[in-house]
Design a protein that fits this description.
By secondary structure, this protein is an alpha+beta fold. It folds into four domains: about 70 residues, Roll (Ubiquitin-like (UB roll)), CATH 3.10.20; about 80 residues; about 80 residues, no CATH class; about 140 residues, Hotdog Thioesterase (Thiol Ester Dehydrase, Chain A, Roll), CATH 3.10.129. A five-stranded mixed beta sheet has the order 2-1-5-3-4, with no helix packed on it. A five-stranded antiparallel beta sheet has the order 13-15-16-17-14. The protein has a four-stranded parallel beta sheet with strand order 7-6-8-9, with helices on both faces. Helix 2 crosses helix 5. The chain binds zinc ion. The site of zinc ion has 8 residues, from loops.
Length: about 425
C-alpha cells in the first residue's frame, strides 16, 4: 500500500501515532493524493511540494500500490502578486483573531455562519487566505490558500498568523475598523462631535472615523488597552517580532515627543546582562544561492548537497540544503549587536543543534536568552556571559540552537560608555 511521509510542520496535523515517521496507509481504490492526504487530516492548503517516488507530482496524482509520497508544507510567506499584504477570511470561530488582525491593519473578513461552499467561493473571488479551525472548509477545492490555525488563544493565534505569513514588517496598527474591517481616516472634532459623549468631545483632540460603518474612534481607556497590546507585539524583548518594525502610520498615535539626542549604541557590558533576559535580533536575513555555494566552497567543504542543484534534486529534500556552518555564522552574526558587541573575546559555542533543514530562499530570524553571567575569577573587572541563541525560519520553525559564551568588561570596573 502507499507509503507517506509528512515533513516539517505538517506533522502536527497528523494523528500522534503517525508523526515523525513514514507509514503505510490504505486508501480507497483510485483515490488521488489529495483524497488520501486530506483523509489523514492535512487540508490541501497546507501542502506545498509533493514527491511521489522522488519525483514532483500534483495532488491529482492517482495513488498506486507501491507509491512513496513525501509531502512538504506550503511556502506561506511568498509575497502576493501585487506586493500588498495578504487579505484574510477568518471562519466564524475566529472572531477574536479577525479583530486582532484588523487592529494591526490587515484586511480580514469574518465569515458568518454560511455553508463552506459559499465561504470558499468568497475567498476565491476575493483572493483571500482562509484562516480556519475547521479542516473541512480548508479541504474545499476552491480554497486556494489557507491555514488550519493551530493555536487556541487569540493572542497566540495572532502570533502564529503573523509569523507564518511573514507579516512582521507589515504591521499598520489602528488603520482599520475593528468592527467592520473598513479603513479608518482622520477626522476633526467638528465632523464627529454630534456622535461623541460630551466628556469625550471636551477632552479628546484626535479622532478617526470608519469609512464603512462611520464608527468614531479616539484614544480612550479601551484604546489604551489595545495600545499596550500593540506595543507588546511590536516589542521584541518578549517575542520574536522585530524590535524595529516600521513605525505604524497610526491615525491614533499620540503626538511625537520632543526630539532627543542619542549617542551611538555601543552594546552591552557585563552589568547589563540579566539571566533570563531575552533579546530579539532584527532584521532577518534571507539566504541566497550564492551565499550557500560560495561559503561552502570557500571553506573547502566538498558535499555537493550545498552547490549541485541537479544532483540535490535527486536526494531526500529535492533541492540544495544550506550549509549548516553558514546558518551558524549568520545566526551568530545576527545576535552580536544585542549580545557580544562589546566582548573582549568570544569563548566558544556549545550544544549546537540543527533542528530543521534550511533551504536557499529561507529567511533566518533569531533571538537569544541570557542563561548565565558570572565574574571571571582570573580576570578582575571582567565577566563571562552565556546566551542560548535560537534561529528560526520564516515560518517560525527553529532551525538551529546553540549556547555561546563571551568575555566582557564590567562597568563597575571602570569600563563605560
Ligand atoms: Zn466600521
Amino acid at each position: 500500500m502507499p507509503r507517506f511521509r509528512f515533513h516539517d510542520q505538517l506533522d502536527e496535523l497528523l494523528r500522534p501515532d503517525l508523526r515523525g515517521r513514514a507509514f503505510d496507509w490504505r486508501s480507497a481504490e483510485n483515490a488521488t493524493a489529495k483524497h488520501a492526504i486530506e483523509a489523514l487530516g492535512v487540508p490541501h492548503t497546507e501542502v506545498g511540494r509533493l514527491l511521489v517516488d522522488g519525483r514532483v507530482a500534483g495532488l491529482g496524482h492517482v495513488l498506486r500500490e507501491a507509491d512513496e509520497l513525501d509531502v512538504f508544507p506550503a511556502d506561506a510567506s511568498r509575497p502576493t502578486p501585487d506586493g500588498r499584504p495578504p487579505r484574510f477570511l477568518a471562519d466564524a470561530h475566529l472572531g477574536g483573531l479577525a479583530r486582532r488582525l484588523r487592529l494591526f491593519g490587515f484586511d480580514t473578513e469574518l465569515a458568518r455562519d454560511a455553508p463552506d461552499r459559499l465561504l470558499a467561493l468568497l475567498a476565491d473571488v476575493d483572493e483571500r487566505i482562509v484562516l480556519s479551525r475547521d479542516r473541512e472548509l480548508l479541504k474545499h477545492r476552491r480554497v486556494a490558500r489557507g491555514r488550519y490555525v493551530r493555536a487556541r488563544s487569540t493572542d497566540e493565534q495572532l502570533r502564529e498568523v503573523l509569523g507564518h505569513y511573514g507579516l512582521r514588517g507589515s504591521l499598520r496598527p489602528f488603520t482599520r475598523c475593528l468592527e467592520c474591517n473598513a479603513p479608518l481616516r482622520r477626522a476633526d472634532r467638528a465632523e464627529v462631535s454630534d456622535r461623541l459623549p460630551p466628556r469625550v468631545a471636551a477632552e479628546q483632540r484626535e479622532f478617526t472615523l470608519c469609512t464603512g460603518c462611520r464608527r468614531v474612534y479616539w484614544p480612550g481607556s479601551h484604546w489604551q488597552r489595545l495600545r499596550s497590546l500593540v506595543d507588546s507585539l511590536c516589542d521584541t524583548s518578549r517575542d520574536a517580532l522585530p524590535a524595529q518594525a516600521p513605525t505604524p502610520q497610526s491615525p491614533m498615535s499620540t503626538p511625537d515627543p520632543p526630539a532627543r539626542d542619542h549617542p551611538p549604541q555601543l552594546g552591552r557590558l557585563y552589568d547589563d546582562f540579566v539571566v533570563g533576559d531575552r533579546y530579539a535580533h532584527w532584521p532577518g536575513r534571507t539566504v541566497i544561492e550564492a551565499d550557500n555555494s560560495w561559503f561552502t566552497l570557500l571553506t573547502m567543504n566538498t558535499h555537493p548537497l550545498h552547490f549541485d542543484a541537479a544532483w540535490s534534486a535527486t536526494q531526500e529534500f529535492g533541492k540544495p540544503l544550506v550549509n549548516s556552518l553558514l546558518t551558524l555564522a549568520i545566526v551568530t552574526g545576527m545576535s552580536v549587536r544585542e549580545t557580544s558587541q562589546r566582548a573582549i573575546a568570544n569563548l566558544g559555542w556549545e550544544q549546537v543543534r540543527l533542528t530543521a533543514p534550511v533551504f536557499v530562499g529561507d529567511t533566518l530570524y533569531a533571538h537569544s536568552v541570557v542563561i548565565a553571567a558570572r565574574r571571571s575569577r582570573s580576570r578582575p573587572g571582567q565577566g563571562i556571559v552565556s546566551v542560548r541563541t535560537t534561529g528560526t525560519n520564516q515560518h517560525g520553525t527553529p532551525v538551529i540552537e546553540f549556547e555561546r559564551s563571551f568575555l566582557v568588561a564590567c562597568r563597575s570596573a571602570g569600563a563605560g560608555d
